[in-house]
TrEMBL record:
GO molecular function list: NAD binding; oxidoreductase activity
Lineage, highest ranks first: Bacteria, Pseudomonadati, Pseudomonadota, Alphaproteobacteria, Hyphomicrobiales
InterPro entries, sorted: D-isomer_DH_NAD-bd (IPR006140), NAD(P)-bd_dom_sf (IPR036291)
Gene3D superfamilies xref list: NAD(P)-binding Rossmann-like Domain
Domain D-isomer specific 2-hydroxyacid dehydrogenase NAD-binding, chain residue ranges per copy: 112-285
Coiled coil: none
Keywords: NAD, Oxidoreductase
Protein name per the record: Putative 2-hydroxyacid dehydrogenase
Amino acid sequence: HGSHAPARRIIAVKSGGEAAIPDWQACFAELAPHLEVRWWDDPQVAPEDVDYVIVWQPEPGRLAAYPNLRLILSSAAGTDHITSDPSWPRHLPIVRAVTPEASQRMAEFIVMSTLALMRDLKRAITGQHQRVWDNFEVDRCAWDMRVGILGLGSMGAASARMLRSVGFGVSGWSRSQKAIEGITCHAGREGLDAFLKETDILVCLLPNTPETTGLINADLLAKLPAGAGLINAGRGTHMVLEDVLSALDSGQLSGAVLDVFEEEPLLADNPAWTHPKVIVTPHIGSIASRRARAAFYAEQIRRFEAGEPMDALYDPVAGY
Ligand code: NDP
Protein backbone atom coordinates (compact mmCIF):
# COMPACT_ATOMS: atom_id res chain seq x y z
CA HIS A 1 0.00 0.00 0.00
CA GLY A 2 1.77 3.11 -1.28
CA SER A 3 2.01 6.21 0.82
CA HIS A 4 -0.08 9.16 -0.31
CA ALA A 5 1.11 11.45 2.46
CA PRO A 6 2.01 14.80 0.89
CA ALA A 7 5.57 16.08 1.30
CA ARG A 8 6.24 18.13 4.40
CA ARG A 9 6.14 21.87 3.63
CA ILE A 10 7.10 24.89 5.70
CA ILE A 11 4.97 28.03 6.00
CA ALA A 12 6.78 31.06 7.44
CA VAL A 13 4.25 33.33 9.12
CA LYS A 14 4.42 37.07 9.73
CA SER A 15 0.89 37.87 10.79
CA GLY A 16 -0.25 38.62 14.31
CA GLY A 17 3.26 38.51 15.77
CA GLU A 18 5.25 35.64 17.26
CA ALA A 19 2.64 35.15 19.99
CA ALA A 20 0.12 34.07 17.35
CA ILE A 21 2.29 31.19 16.06
CA PRO A 22 0.95 28.46 18.42
CA ASP A 23 -2.55 29.38 17.30
CA TRP A 24 -1.63 29.15 13.59
CA GLN A 25 0.14 25.85 14.31
CA ALA A 26 -2.92 24.42 16.04
CA CYS A 27 -5.14 25.43 13.10
CA PHE A 28 -2.89 23.83 10.47
CA ALA A 29 -2.18 20.72 12.56
CA GLU A 30 -5.89 19.99 12.31
CA LEU A 31 -6.43 21.08 8.70
CA ALA A 32 -3.27 19.99 6.90
CA PRO A 33 -0.69 18.30 9.12
CA HIS A 34 1.96 18.25 6.37
CA LEU A 35 2.10 22.06 6.55
CA GLU A 36 4.48 23.08 9.31
CA VAL A 37 4.00 26.61 10.61
CA ARG A 38 7.13 28.50 11.71
CA TRP A 39 7.66 32.04 12.93
CA TRP A 40 8.97 34.43 10.28
CA ASP A 41 12.12 35.17 12.28
CA ASP A 42 12.70 31.61 13.54
CA PRO A 43 16.52 31.21 13.48
CA GLN A 44 16.12 27.41 13.01
CA VAL A 45 14.48 27.87 9.59
CA ALA A 46 16.86 28.34 6.64
CA PRO A 47 15.51 30.57 3.83
CA GLU A 48 15.73 27.68 1.32
CA ASP A 49 13.40 25.57 3.50
CA VAL A 50 10.46 27.95 3.18
CA ASP A 51 7.73 26.88 0.74
CA TYR A 52 4.91 29.27 1.63
CA VAL A 53 4.48 32.52 3.55
CA ILE A 54 1.53 34.14 5.29
CA VAL A 55 2.43 37.81 5.55
CA TRP A 56 1.39 41.32 6.48
CA GLN A 57 3.90 44.03 5.44
CA PRO A 58 6.96 41.82 4.91
CA GLU A 59 10.18 43.85 5.25
CA PRO A 60 11.36 44.91 1.75
CA GLY A 61 13.73 42.31 0.32
CA ARG A 62 12.59 39.51 2.61
CA LEU A 63 10.38 37.63 0.13
CA ALA A 64 13.07 37.76 -2.56
CA ALA A 65 15.46 36.05 -0.11
CA TYR A 66 13.44 32.79 -0.10
CA PRO A 67 14.82 30.88 -3.12
CA ASN A 68 12.23 28.08 -3.00
CA LEU A 69 9.13 30.10 -2.17
CA ARG A 70 6.15 28.77 -4.16
CA LEU A 71 3.17 30.87 -3.14
CA ILE A 72 2.50 34.08 -1.18
CA LEU A 73 -0.53 34.15 1.09
CA SER A 74 -1.61 37.67 2.07
CA SER A 75 -2.81 37.88 5.65
CA ALA A 76 -5.41 40.44 4.45
CA ALA A 77 -7.71 41.14 1.49
CA GLY A 78 -5.33 43.76 0.12
CA THR A 79 -1.97 43.06 -1.52
CA ASP A 80 -0.47 46.59 -1.51
CA HIS A 81 1.43 45.79 1.70
CA ILE A 82 3.32 43.12 -0.32
CA THR A 83 3.65 44.70 -3.78
CA SER A 84 4.96 47.98 -2.35
CA ASP A 85 8.26 46.09 -1.90
CA PRO A 86 10.06 46.77 -5.22
CA SER A 87 11.83 43.40 -4.99
CA TRP A 88 8.79 41.21 -4.33
CA PRO A 89 9.05 38.01 -6.40
CA ARG A 90 6.74 38.88 -9.28
CA HIS A 91 6.78 35.37 -10.75
CA LEU A 92 4.87 34.02 -7.72
CA PRO A 93 1.10 34.03 -7.29
CA ILE A 94 -0.36 36.01 -4.37
CA VAL A 95 -3.55 34.71 -2.77
CA ARG A 96 -5.61 37.40 -0.97
CA ALA A 97 -7.41 36.43 2.26
CA VAL A 98 -11.03 36.42 1.11
CA THR A 99 -13.45 34.53 3.33
CA PRO A 100 -17.19 34.82 3.93
CA GLU A 101 -16.35 35.72 7.52
CA ALA A 102 -14.11 38.65 6.48
CA SER A 103 -16.83 39.99 4.15
CA GLN A 104 -19.47 39.61 6.86
CA ARG A 105 -17.31 41.47 9.38
CA MET A 106 -16.67 44.31 6.94
CA ALA A 107 -20.36 44.55 6.06
CA GLU A 108 -21.17 44.78 9.77
CA PHE A 109 -18.59 47.55 10.18
CA ILE A 110 -20.01 49.48 7.22
CA VAL A 111 -23.61 49.14 8.45
CA MET A 112 -22.54 50.22 11.95
CA SER A 113 -20.68 53.25 10.54
CA THR A 114 -23.50 54.22 8.18
CA LEU A 115 -26.02 54.12 11.04
CA ALA A 116 -23.59 56.05 13.28
CA LEU A 117 -23.38 58.82 10.67
CA MET A 118 -27.10 58.87 9.95
CA ARG A 119 -28.02 59.06 13.67
CA ASP A 120 -25.08 61.35 14.57
CA LEU A 121 -23.66 59.01 17.19
CA LYS A 122 -20.61 61.29 17.50
CA ARG A 123 -22.89 64.06 18.84
CA ALA A 124 -24.27 61.76 21.55
CA ILE A 125 -20.79 60.58 22.52
CA THR A 126 -19.52 64.16 22.66
CA GLY A 127 -22.47 65.05 24.89
CA GLN A 128 -21.66 62.11 27.15
CA HIS A 129 -18.04 63.29 27.56
CA GLN A 130 -19.41 66.68 28.66
CA ARG A 131 -22.34 65.27 30.72
CA VAL A 132 -24.73 67.14 28.41
CA TRP A 133 -28.18 65.55 27.91
CA ASP A 134 -28.51 66.68 24.29
CA ASN A 135 -31.89 65.19 23.30
CA PHE A 136 -31.53 65.86 19.56
CA GLU A 137 -33.82 64.63 16.79
CA VAL A 138 -32.74 63.09 13.50
CA ASP A 139 -35.40 63.58 10.86
CA ARG A 140 -34.55 60.68 8.54
CA CYS A 141 -34.30 56.92 8.39
CA ALA A 142 -32.54 54.40 6.17
CA TRP A 143 -35.31 54.60 3.56
CA ASP A 144 -34.45 58.26 2.97
CA MET A 145 -30.74 57.68 2.54
CA ARG A 146 -28.67 56.61 -0.45
CA VAL A 147 -25.37 54.92 0.29
CA GLY A 148 -22.80 54.77 -2.52
CA ILE A 149 -19.96 52.25 -2.35
CA LEU A 150 -16.66 52.74 -4.18
CA GLY A 151 -15.54 49.18 -4.97
CA LEU A 152 -17.92 46.23 -5.41
CA GLY A 153 -15.53 43.37 -4.69
CA SER A 154 -15.70 40.86 -1.86
CA MET A 155 -15.99 43.65 0.73
CA GLY A 156 -18.09 46.14 -1.24
CA ALA A 157 -20.69 43.67 -2.54
CA ALA A 158 -21.28 42.12 0.91
CA SER A 159 -21.64 45.60 2.43
CA ALA A 160 -24.04 46.66 -0.33
CA ARG A 161 -26.31 43.69 0.33
CA MET A 162 -26.36 44.18 4.10
CA LEU A 163 -27.07 47.93 3.77
CA ARG A 164 -29.90 47.09 1.37
CA SER A 165 -31.42 44.68 3.89
CA VAL A 166 -31.37 47.42 6.55
CA GLY A 167 -33.44 49.61 4.21
CA PHE A 168 -30.88 51.96 2.62
CA GLY A 169 -30.93 52.79 -1.06
CA VAL A 170 -27.62 51.43 -2.32
CA SER A 171 -25.49 52.04 -5.36
CA GLY A 172 -21.95 50.99 -6.19
CA TRP A 173 -19.03 51.81 -8.43
CA SER A 174 -16.44 49.44 -9.88
CA ARG A 175 -14.05 49.14 -12.81
CA SER A 176 -16.10 46.57 -14.71
CA GLN A 177 -19.90 46.73 -14.86
CA LYS A 178 -21.61 44.65 -12.16
CA ALA A 179 -25.17 43.36 -11.81
CA ILE A 180 -26.27 42.91 -8.18
CA GLU A 181 -29.96 42.57 -7.40
CA GLY A 182 -31.38 45.68 -5.73
CA ILE A 183 -28.16 47.67 -6.16
CA THR A 184 -27.65 50.40 -8.78
CA CYS A 185 -24.29 49.63 -10.35
CA HIS A 186 -22.06 52.17 -12.07
CA ALA A 187 -18.70 51.53 -13.70
CA GLY A 188 -15.59 53.36 -14.81
CA ARG A 189 -14.58 57.02 -14.72
CA GLU A 190 -17.54 57.87 -16.98
CA GLY A 191 -19.97 56.47 -14.40
CA LEU A 192 -18.45 58.25 -11.40
CA ASP A 193 -20.20 61.65 -11.51
CA ALA A 194 -23.71 60.20 -11.81
CA PHE A 195 -22.90 57.86 -8.91
CA LEU A 196 -21.61 60.70 -6.69
CA LYS A 197 -24.61 62.94 -7.41
CA GLU A 198 -26.97 60.40 -5.83
CA THR A 199 -24.82 59.46 -2.83
CA ASP A 200 -25.72 60.72 0.69
CA ILE A 201 -23.11 58.54 2.39
CA LEU A 202 -19.98 57.59 0.44
CA VAL A 203 -18.19 54.37 1.42
CA CYS A 204 -14.71 53.54 0.15
CA LEU A 205 -13.81 49.84 -0.21
CA LEU A 206 -11.34 50.11 -3.07
CA PRO A 207 -7.94 48.47 -3.34
CA ASN A 208 -4.84 50.67 -3.29
CA THR A 209 -3.63 51.15 -6.88
CA PRO A 210 -2.19 54.08 -8.86
CA GLU A 211 -5.72 54.76 -10.24
CA THR A 212 -7.38 54.91 -6.84
CA THR A 213 -4.72 56.92 -4.97
CA GLY A 214 -6.00 60.36 -3.98
CA LEU A 215 -9.41 59.71 -5.54
CA ILE A 216 -11.29 61.19 -2.57
CA ASN A 217 -10.13 64.78 -2.95
CA ALA A 218 -11.79 68.22 -2.93
CA ASP A 219 -12.92 67.82 -6.52
CA LEU A 220 -14.71 64.52 -5.85
CA LEU A 221 -16.20 65.67 -2.53
CA ALA A 222 -17.70 68.75 -4.26
CA LYS A 223 -19.72 66.39 -6.50
CA LEU A 224 -21.57 64.86 -3.54
CA PRO A 225 -24.80 66.44 -2.30
CA ALA A 226 -24.05 69.07 0.39
CA GLY A 227 -23.88 67.51 3.87
CA ALA A 228 -22.95 64.02 2.71
CA GLY A 229 -21.19 61.51 4.97
CA LEU A 230 -17.95 59.63 4.30
CA ILE A 231 -16.71 56.22 5.45
CA ASN A 232 -13.21 55.16 4.43
CA ALA A 233 -12.36 51.53 5.15
CA GLY A 234 -10.30 51.05 1.97
CA ARG A 235 -6.84 52.56 2.42
CA GLY A 236 -5.58 55.89 3.74
CA THR A 237 -4.02 56.63 0.34
CA HIS A 238 -7.50 56.83 -1.20
CA MET A 239 -8.22 60.17 0.47
CA VAL A 240 -6.51 63.52 0.63
CA LEU A 241 -7.06 63.92 4.36
CA GLU A 242 -6.72 67.75 4.31
CA ASP A 243 -9.47 67.90 1.67
CA VAL A 244 -11.72 65.65 3.77
CA LEU A 245 -11.20 67.80 6.88
CA SER A 246 -11.83 71.04 4.90
CA ALA A 247 -15.05 69.58 3.50
CA LEU A 248 -16.12 68.74 7.06
CA ASP A 249 -15.31 72.30 8.17
CA SER A 250 -17.24 73.87 5.29
CA GLY A 251 -20.27 71.59 5.80
CA GLN A 252 -19.91 69.90 2.40
CA LEU A 253 -19.41 66.77 4.51
CA SER A 254 -21.47 66.37 7.71
CA GLY A 255 -19.44 63.55 9.27
CA ALA A 256 -16.86 60.88 8.60
CA VAL A 257 -15.79 57.49 9.90
CA LEU A 258 -12.13 56.94 9.05
CA ASP A 259 -10.64 53.47 9.62
CA VAL A 260 -7.48 53.75 7.49
CA PHE A 261 -4.71 56.32 7.18
CA GLU A 262 -1.62 56.91 5.06
CA GLU A 263 0.56 56.42 8.10
CA GLU A 264 -0.55 53.79 10.63
CA PRO A 265 -0.64 53.98 13.59
CA LEU A 266 -2.14 57.46 13.12
CA LEU A 267 0.36 60.03 14.40
CA ALA A 268 -0.49 61.69 17.72
CA ASP A 269 -0.67 65.19 16.21
CA ASN A 270 -2.95 64.24 13.30
CA PRO A 271 -5.98 66.59 13.30
CA ALA A 272 -8.35 63.68 12.55
CA TRP A 273 -8.05 62.52 16.18
CA THR A 274 -9.75 65.62 17.56
CA HIS A 275 -11.99 66.74 14.71
CA PRO A 276 -15.51 67.10 16.12
CA LYS A 277 -17.11 65.45 13.08
CA VAL A 278 -14.74 62.52 12.72
CA ILE A 279 -14.90 59.07 14.26
CA VAL A 280 -11.44 57.47 14.09
CA THR A 281 -11.21 53.67 14.23
CA PRO A 282 -7.81 51.89 14.21
CA HIS A 283 -7.98 49.77 11.03
CA ILE A 284 -10.53 47.38 12.52
CA GLY A 285 -12.99 47.30 9.61
CA SER A 286 -12.52 43.61 9.07
CA ILE A 287 -10.01 41.29 10.67
CA ALA A 288 -10.85 37.70 9.85
CA SER A 289 -10.27 35.03 12.49
CA ARG A 290 -7.13 32.90 12.25
CA ARG A 291 -9.26 29.77 12.11
CA ALA A 292 -11.28 30.97 9.08
CA ARG A 293 -8.16 32.21 7.28
CA ALA A 294 -6.21 29.02 8.01
CA ALA A 295 -9.03 26.94 6.50
CA PHE A 296 -9.01 29.18 3.43
CA TYR A 297 -5.21 29.06 3.05
CA ALA A 298 -5.09 25.28 3.56
CA GLU A 299 -7.65 24.85 0.79
CA GLN A 300 -5.76 27.17 -1.59
CA ILE A 301 -2.48 25.32 -0.87
CA ARG A 302 -4.24 22.00 -1.50
CA ARG A 303 -5.41 23.30 -4.88
CA PHE A 304 -1.98 24.71 -5.67
CA GLU A 305 -0.33 21.39 -4.91
CA ALA A 306 -2.96 19.53 -6.96
CA GLY A 307 -2.55 21.94 -9.88
CA GLU A 308 -6.14 23.19 -9.54
CA PRO A 309 -7.21 26.84 -9.96
CA MET A 310 -7.05 28.93 -6.77
CA ASP A 311 -9.41 31.63 -5.45
CA ALA A 312 -8.82 35.33 -4.81
CA LEU A 313 -5.61 35.62 -6.81
CA TYR A 314 -3.87 38.98 -7.17
CA ASP A 315 -4.14 40.12 -10.79
CA PRO A 316 -0.81 41.62 -11.87
CA VAL A 317 -2.39 43.42 -14.84
CA ALA A 318 -5.15 45.10 -12.80
CA GLY A 319 -2.73 45.65 -9.90
CA TYR A 320 -5.10 44.30 -7.18
P1 NDP B 1 -11.70 43.12 -4.52
O1 NDP B 1 -10.50 43.05 -5.40
O2 NDP B 1 -12.58 41.94 -4.36
O3 NDP B 1 -12.62 44.35 -5.00
C1 NDP B 1 -12.12 45.58 -5.38
C2 NDP B 1 -13.22 46.39 -6.03
O4 NDP B 1 -12.73 47.70 -6.37
C3 NDP B 1 -13.72 45.75 -7.32
O5 NDP B 1 -15.11 45.92 -7.45
C4 NDP B 1 -12.98 46.56 -8.38
O6 NDP B 1 -13.62 46.61 -9.65
C5 NDP B 1 -12.97 47.93 -7.75
N1 NDP B 1 -11.92 48.77 -8.34
C6 NDP B 1 -10.58 48.54 -8.34
N2 NDP B 1 -9.95 49.52 -9.03
C7 NDP B 1 -10.90 50.36 -9.45
C8 NDP B 1 -10.87 51.55 -10.22
N3 NDP B 1 -9.72 52.06 -10.69
N4 NDP B 1 -12.05 52.16 -10.49
C9 NDP B 1 -13.20 51.64 -10.05
N5 NDP B 1 -13.31 50.53 -9.32
C10 NDP B 1 -12.16 49.89 -9.04
O7 NDP B 1 -11.17 43.60 -3.09
P2 NDP B 1 -11.88 43.38 -1.67
O8 NDP B 1 -13.30 43.80 -1.77
O9 NDP B 1 -11.56 42.02 -1.16
O10 NDP B 1 -11.06 44.43 -0.79
C11 NDP B 1 -11.06 45.79 -1.17
C12 NDP B 1 -10.12 46.60 -0.32
O11 NDP B 1 -10.65 46.82 0.97
C13 NDP B 1 -8.75 45.96 -0.04
O12 NDP B 1 -7.89 46.07 -1.15
C14 NDP B 1 -8.29 46.77 1.13
O13 NDP B 1 -7.67 47.96 0.66
C15 NDP B 1 -9.59 47.13 1.85
N6 NDP B 1 -9.77 46.37 3.09
C16 NDP B 1 -9.75 47.03 4.30
C17 NDP B 1 -9.92 46.37 5.48
C18 NDP B 1 -10.02 47.08 6.79
O14 NDP B 1 -9.96 46.45 7.84
N7 NDP B 1 -10.20 48.38 6.78
C19 NDP B 1 -10.10 44.89 5.50
C20 NDP B 1 -10.17 44.30 4.20
C21 NDP B 1 -10.00 45.01 3.04
P3 NDP B 1 -13.86 45.24 -10.49
O15 NDP B 1 -14.96 44.52 -9.75
O16 NDP B 1 -14.28 45.71 -11.82
O17 NDP B 1 -12.56 44.49 -10.45
